[in-house]
Amino acid sequence: MTRGEEAALHAFVEGRRPALFRSAYLLCGNRDEAEDLVQTTLVKVVLGARRHGRLESLEAYARKTLVNTFISARRRFWRREHAYGEVPDVPGRSVDSDTGLVVRAALAELAPKQRAVLVLRYWEDLSVAATAQVLGMRESTVKSHTARGLAALRAAVREEYV
């Protein structure tokens, strides 16, 4: 890579980090996990750009890498295990009724692909076709994940405020 390409790559990483973090936070629901996801994504993007020379759309590549890394991490067995010091007798109920917290909690309950579709469609403001391309799925699958995910979010918000 030339010095100019390296500088452009560095500027891209610095400029896109905050936007990638916001998307990662919505996907993960956890600040530390989102930081790790963004860091892993940016390492993959930089290595990919250096390996392949110039990528046509670095932003699309970064977005796709972020989502794929998130989904891949959710498939791992060790990610499904959660250690607790003491198991509560009954689950605690959130006393905060802020809509943003309710929506993020409901978003965290969705399957990783549904969550990825909703984040790309409504946070990143991608079209159905663009979301399908990023996730490597059919447009009809994106539409069904969107419908099911929105229904689950509406039900969770309705349940919280009833």
Order of helices and strands: HHHHHHHH
Given the helix and strand composition, which structural class is it? mainly alpha
- Roughly how many Å is the radius of gyration? 18 Å
Q: Could you say which overall geometry the principal axes of the C-alpha atoms support?
A: globular
Largest sheet: none
Please report which band the strand proportion falls in: under 5%, 5-15%, 15-25%, 25-35%, 35-45% or over 45%.
under 5%
Q: CA-to-CA gap between the ends? A: 58 Å
Beta-strand segment tally? 0
Compute the average pLDDT.
Answer: 83
Proportion of residues in helical segments: over 70%
Number of helices: 8
Q: Point out poorly predicted stretches.
A: none
Short description:
By secondary structure, this protein is mainly alpha-helical. The chain has eight helices and no strands. Helix 1 runs antiparallel to helix 2 and helix 2 packs across helix 3.
